[in-house]
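for the writeup, i need someone to sanity check this before i put it in the appendix. the sequnce is what the collaborator sent (i think, or maybe the updated version? ugh). structure was predicted straight from it, no edits. if anything looks off just tell me and ill rerun, i have time this weekend
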Amino acid sequence: MLGLLEPLAMAPMVLVTVLCLGALLDCVRTPAERVRHVPKALWLFFMLGAPIVGGLAWIYLGKGPEPREDRGTRRRARLVEPDPSSTSGSGGI
């Protein structure tokens, strides 16, 4: 019976570790412009001091949404991109 309980006892520790490491890596990789409320260094300090609460707070409060492109920017980008069917060459001859 003890052999079955060991993996069950390890599961919460593994989940907490994945949460904390994932939040730390996400915070480090996030550009400073997208960090909300406090500077990135304070978020990292908070996550190292209180890993579970800090990781959850980062996920729900710390990171702002990605900037979205407006339709005009996408439309202009499509017009600038070369058409793949109009490549220079012999034309298949």
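The mean pLDDT is 81. The chain has four helices and no strands.
thx in advance!!
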